[in-house]
Design brief:
Length: 151
């Protein structure tokens, strides 16, 4: 059997913080750039454009690309009103799923709780709350990824 790290796919709206999350986890400088296409980073993180979730006609690309992932990661910005993830969304992939609330420094306590609720309803079995700007919430996430041999 091939011995490789598990691969994750990041799925979320445009501007949800997926690329910044990748940069933080890879100890890179945080600089915004718009993800235009699916990108494989360090052979273990699949970064996806937000439009693939936002446009129904592009969602199939997420389903097809997720075949290459071992773990589905749903990304929800803390202060986003509502969510793009329908209830039970993770069942589309038939793979383990976690959720990450990003930009917690921008959300109120209620907004963060709502974001966690949205991710839970979408099927995330564990939820992590992070802020790349403040560098908070990553200890538990990195520990989870190491336990799951992702990073």
């Amino acid at each position: 059997m091939e011995n490789r790290k598990k691969r994750i796919i990041l799925i979320g709206r445009s501007m949800a913080g997926k690329t910044t999350l990748c940069q933080y986890l890879n100890h890179e400088d945080l600089k915004y750039h718009k993800t235009q296409t699916i990108q494989l980073i360090n052979d273990n993180v699949i970064d996806t454009p937000g439009e693939y979730l936002e446009r129904n006609y592009l969602r199939g690309a997420l389903t097809v690309t997720a075949v290459e992932a071992d773990l589905i990661v749903l990304v929800q910005q803390a202060n986003e009103m509502g969510t793009m993830f329908p209830p039970g969304y993770s069942s589309t992939f038939a793979k383990p799923c976690i959720g990450i609330v990003t930009k917690s420094d921008l959300g109120t306590e209620k907004q963060i709780e709502d974001a966690k609720k949205y991710l839970s309803m979408a099927g995330a079995r564990e939820i992590f709350v992070t802020s790349s700007y403040e560098g908070t919430g990553f200890e538990a996430l990195i520990s989870y990824f190491e336990k799951e041999t992702v990073l």
